Amino acid sequence: MKTKAIVFTKINTAELLSEDVSRPKADEVTVKLHYSAISRGTELANITGDPNVSASTQAGQPVKFPRYGGYSAAGEVVEVGAEVTDITVGDRVVVFWGSHQGTITIKQDYVVKIPDGVSMEEAALAFIATFPLAAIRKCKLEIGESALVMGLGTLGVFAVSELRACGAMPIIAADPVAERREFALSMGADYALDPASPDFCRKVREITGEGVNVVIEVSGVGAGMIQALDCMKQFGRMALLGCTRNSDFNIDYYRKVHAPGISIIGAHTIARPKESFPGYWNEIDDIKAILNLLAGGRLRFRDMICEIHSPEESPEVYTRMINEKNFPIGVLFDWTRV
Fold first, then answer.
1. What phi, psi does 217 have (nearest 5°)?
2. Which residues pair with 239 in a beta bridge?
């Protein structure tokens, strides 16, 4: 069977190509996607040829293409393998760690049923939304604690919404792009500040009194991390969620980390346990949590969906993503339009 797939064939180039789809093995399911979501940070690194797209990549290794994006999607099951018992044909499911393609065959461990009341569009964003949720869990945020989100791309805006659902107060959103700050305010931030402002840290401390309890660092920029450390309260916790792909920066650990007792927590989504325990949930349990919060109205993803495109438009969409400083937050591909 053939399907259409978005493939990064070379640097700064996305193409819609035909690819083979296999019949499901005993432990696999085949899903016809309805929507797949762009994750800008990861996909920008892939399409521009950044060598640091995997923690297993060794320094100096050549950059190889083709590359793929689209690890968060939703669709309908059209075929199941002989050993699959809890997923049936016709089920609506989230597909995670897949790719942007019309039909995909994948192990049953990478699909989660979508509950009634959650749209396919919202569900397509569910896996991406688990990334900041895991970071918040690792920081052990308590109700009423203050929080700062550094960087307001897709993950940063999700972090703002989830911090609000978790009871953080106040929530401060930081990004140099004014439009992103306004968007974060609409999604639940109490304050939105420009980190390029010379009095940024002073403003954060004025808002919080003694500094923030929790920082979700999503900028992936060393300077942003250092700035955030200057905004933290004693014994604060910082989750490094954004991928800091360039490590060429220095931190005064003695003054910024050791002396104030700051905890710096690695929060890449691959740093998860197989079995969930307090503060550390696995992927499936976090996806189910996000879907339940959507179904219960505690999160609203419809407001985050800014654009929906046919996959036929993918070359133009990715050209924009590469060049636009304020690329939209929630961008989906609609695979029913191929």
1. -90, 110
2. 216, 265
- Those residues whose C-beta lies under 8 Å from the C-beta of residue 259, and which sit 6 or more positions away, are none
The secondary structure of residue 277, as a DSSP letter, is B
Query: What's the pTM value of the predicted model, to 2 decimals?
Result: 0.93
What does the alpha-carbon distance between residue 122 and residue 330 come to, in Å, rounded to a whole number? 10
Is residue 105's pLDDT more than 60? Answer: yes
Looking at residue 56, what is its pLDDT? 55
Express each pLDDT in 175-221 by its tens digit. Answer: 999 999 999 999 999 999 999 999 999 999 999 999 999 999 999 88
Whether the Cβ atoms of residue 194 and residue 176 lie closer than 8 Å to each other: yes
> Where are the alpha helices (H) located in 187-266, listed in sequence order?
200-208, 222-229, 253
Question: Phi and psi of 205, rounded to 5°?
Answer: -70, -30
- Beta bridge pairs of residue 3: 19
Name residues whose C-beta falls within 8 Å of residue 14's C-beta, 6 or more positions apart in sequence: 6, 7, 8, 47, 314, 315, 317, 318, 319
222 vs 157: CA distance, rounded Å: 20
* Closest to 165 in 3D by CA, of 190, 188, 138, 140: 188
